[in-house]
Amino acid sequence: MMEISALISQMQQSEFYPHPVADNIELVQTHVSYVLLTGDYAYKLKKSVNFGFLDYSTLEKRKHFLDAEISLNSAIAPELYLEVLPITQEGEKFILNGSGEPVAYTLKMRQFPQENLFINLFDAGKLSIEKMEELGKIVAEFHKNAVTNEYISSFGKVEKIRQAFDENYAQTQGYIGRAQTQEQLTATQAYTDNFFAEREDLFNSRINNNKIKECHGDLHLKNICLWQDKIQLFDRIEFNEPFRFVDVIYDVAFAMMDLEAKGKQDFANAFLNTYLEETGDWEGLPLLPLYLSRQAYVRAKVTSFLLDDPAIPETVKQEASQTATNYYKQAWEYTQRKSGKLILMSGLSGSGKTTVAKTIARNTGAIHIRSDAVRKHIAGIALEATGSDSIYTPQMNQKTYDRLLELGVMLVQEGFTVILDAKYDRIDYRHKVIDAIKLHNISLQIIHCTAPLEVLRDRLNQRSGDISDATADLLTTQQAKAEAFTQEEQVYVTTIDTSNTDWKSLKAIS
User: Fold this and answer.
1) Can you list the alpha helix ranges (DSSP code H) found in 17-172?
2) Which of 177, 249, 287, 398 has the greatest number of beta carbons closer than 10 A?
3) Environment class of residue 472 by beta-carbon count within 10 Å: exposed (0-12), middle (13-18) or buried (19+)?
4) C-alpha count within 13 angstroms, C-beta hemisphere, residue 458
5) What does each of the 510 residues of the chain score in pLDDT, given as a tens digit?
6) Which own/partner contact pairs does 66-74 have at CB distance under 8 Å and 24+ positions apart?
7) Integer angstrom CA distances of residue 457 from 109, 351, 426, 470
8) Residues 212, 246: contact at Cβ < 8 Å?
């Protein structure tokens, strides 16, 4: 401890570095590392710790994992990760990149302004729904290009996944009565035990569909930043393969959990629905509560570790204790079964269906599924591509509406509220939904969006950057073919005139 203290002390002095530094070199600590912020560059050292799931207990291991960290993160953030440098010692003096026998190693990174870290942008009120949608697209693209193979996929088996869960519970026994209760731990563990016992087919389907990839593993707001006006993911897990070779939903859950822990369920919803629309991976949602609970529990665990770190000030420990308590509670809350419902949007193109659906989703945490996205995923074309006439045939329409219904029923049965966003202008499409909800005892609401024809036309003429291919010249045909709601359907219908600016205050969308 004295040696590392002396090293850290010298690393906080300007003469340690061969380049200009800030007036005050800032030290940031986590439970596993020291980070020195010097101005243009940041230097990371790993602590000599062994938590079982993470072992930095020897110099050789610390170098190995620094090398692994730069290798993995250079693939996603090459501008930020620079090099691993040795630190040598002459007497009491430590030398960066010296020629003698190394006594430590440090990872040199390009330092970005700390106000550009997503956690700091959040605290400053500078994150927005639009940034969350952009993040959803960034993570979707990252997962699209992430590596998978037979070895990586093997980590999707139940017996391997549950090892980390069991380790989490074992490693937090000592915090019962300090940061969590026995009742919460027992209930949380019972949920995950039952999930693993009852849902093996789900895990196997994820393996078979190549959804186990070399992911990020620690995707929360402290590991996302803006660099040169672009969202950048960094600090990918390097120390433990089971934390990195995971289901893509594992990564999604980490970012969601972090946002929800901060009371921003609407941000989490915008991120999730954008990601799902980009990837079409709605089948991954049954895993979401499991991984949300797991990620909250991990944050509780690593925060709890600070309580036993002698290098952490007492005031910081008191704050950490409350933070850990909150995370343990959040992990338990994710295991509580919810009742889902189905919401159908209906109306002509430009009637505001998607705007209303997004508002409902942000308010309620609903899963928002657009027919435009489903149609293009079925056709195998990019969402931003303009579809040809071949994807708008009666046969393709039927496939699209069948897929919407399939997803809606499946996800409501998993406890999600689901919004199916399509014209639903034909009695046949709507009655198939009504038959299904009666069969499965599902609650249904139909929200019919309207606006004067000239308003619809103006909206469509001004639309840009949307995945919908609808144009104003289609409105006359749509209007002629639209079939009115039957008496049976009317009991489910709420009509909203979206040209009326007061529509957002309606109880139907809350």
Assistant:
1) 59-74, 118-123, 129-145, 150-153, 158-171
2) 249
3) middle
4) 6
5) 448 999 999 999 999 999 999 999 999 988 899 999 999 999 999 999 998 889 999 999 999 999 999 999 988 898 899 999 999 999 999 999 999 899 999 999 999 888 999 999 999 999 999 999 999 999 999 999 999 999 999 999 999 999 999 999 999 999 999 999 999 999 999 999 999 999 999 999 999 999 999 999 999 999 999 988 899 999 999 998 999 999 999 999 999 999 999 999 999 999 999 999 999 999 999 999 999 999 999 999 989 998 988 888 899 999 999 999 999 999 999 999 889 999 999 999 999 999 999 999 999 999 999 999 999 999 999 999 999 989 999 999 999 999 999 999 999 999 999 999 999 999 999 999 999 999 999 999 999 999 999 999 999 999 888 899 888 889 999 999 999 999 999 999 999 999 987 777 777 666
6) 66/105, 66/106, 66/107, 68/238, 68/239, 69/107, 69/236, 69/238, 70/107, 71/238, 72/236, 72/237, 72/238, 72/244, 73/234, 73/235, 73/236, 73/238
7) 52, 9, 21, 11
8) yes
Fold of 118-333: Aminoglycoside 3'-phosphotransferase; Chain: A, domain 2 (3.90.1200)
Q: What is the pTM of this model?
A: 0.90
Return the residue matching tokens 């006359």: 476
Q: Which CATH number fits domain 2-111: 3.30.200, 2.60.40, 3.30.420, 3.40.1000?
A: 3.30.200
> Cα 374 from chain centroid?
21
**What's the CATH superfamily of 342-509?**
P-loop containing nucleotide triphosphate hydrolases (3.40.50.300)
Residue 484's CB is within 10 A of a number of other CB atoms, namely 8
The runs of H, that is alpha helices, within 263-306 are: 265-279, 288-305
